[in-house]
Amino acid sequence: MTTTAPETGKRARRGGVMSSAGLYLATSVAALLFLVPFYLIVRNALSTDPEITGENWKFFPADIQWGNLTEPFDDPTVDFGRSMWNSLVVGVLHTAGTLFVCSLAGYALARIPYRHADKVFYAVLVTLMVPAAVTFVPSFVLVSSLGWVDSYRGLIVPGLFSGFTCFLFRQYFLGFPRELEEAARVDGLGYWGAYWRVVVPNSLNFFAAIATITFINGWNAFLWPLVIGQDPSAWTVQVALSSYMTNQTVNYHLIFMATAISILPLLFVFLFLQRWLVQGIAQTGIKG
């Protein structure tokens, strides 16, 4: 018995509806799982320590502790406000410097004709295979010899170049329309002029995407700031958070409240740049 065309169309529609429903269900479950850690942070930040560690779990505390909001800034042992400022300065300057250095390197590898360009590019890729821990000791010795310990220079300069970011910029610039650069050279611009006046203004989406990822990584950095920021005045927010947990005491609600506050700048950056982040990742051009 043959199946008529209308019946086939109905089955196809039903299959499409079921597929869409399954996709939405899977996406909803994934979103809920993603939000669980943030719920726990907010819930515990507004609770007392007995409510956090008690056996009787409540979805939300019966008596919300709004006073916990100011406790990280009132703690005399840790200058949390200063650590937030240090992280902001380091994050912004590190992001700006990385974009400038790596975009120039990526543009040079993609556009400037040089017979050893491929060898230089392969050398950059080799740096991706070297564990970061291997370079910690020589980097610290160099920074210490320059007198950059407990300074913004020591926190920022050693991490300005990223082999992976350089790789992404090179791949993106390989797919950038050459016609725009050729028109710029007809007008008398060199490589620098074409890069600064033509390439950068037409690549803001990609720059914004890389800036978002770089800022988040810089804000969340812990080991290098811990090594360089030996004085509490040079601590970043991640180092300050670690100081709330000692061998003697663990102030749970203070840790969660400070964590919630430290997430706010990242949340703002992500919400503000999420459209450019998605577009930029789609334009990475990892091909060819």
Automatic annotation (TrEMBL):
InterPro entries the UniProt entry points to: MetI-like, MetI-like_sf
Major place of residence: membrane
Entry keyword annotation includes Metal-binding: no
Topology versus the membrane: Multi-pass membrane protein
Database matches in Pfam families: BPD_transp_1
Annotated TM spans: 21-42, 88-109, 121-143, 155-173, 194-216, 252-273
The entry's keywords: Cell membrane, Membrane, Transmembrane, Transmembrane helix, Transport
UniProt entry tagged with the keyword Membrane: yes
Subcellular localization(s) per the UniProt record: Cell membrane
UniProt domain ABC transmembrane type-1: residue ranges: 84-273
Family: Belongs to the binding-protein-dependent transport system permease family.
Protein name: Carbohydrate ABC transporter permease
Origin species: Streptomyces bangladeshensis
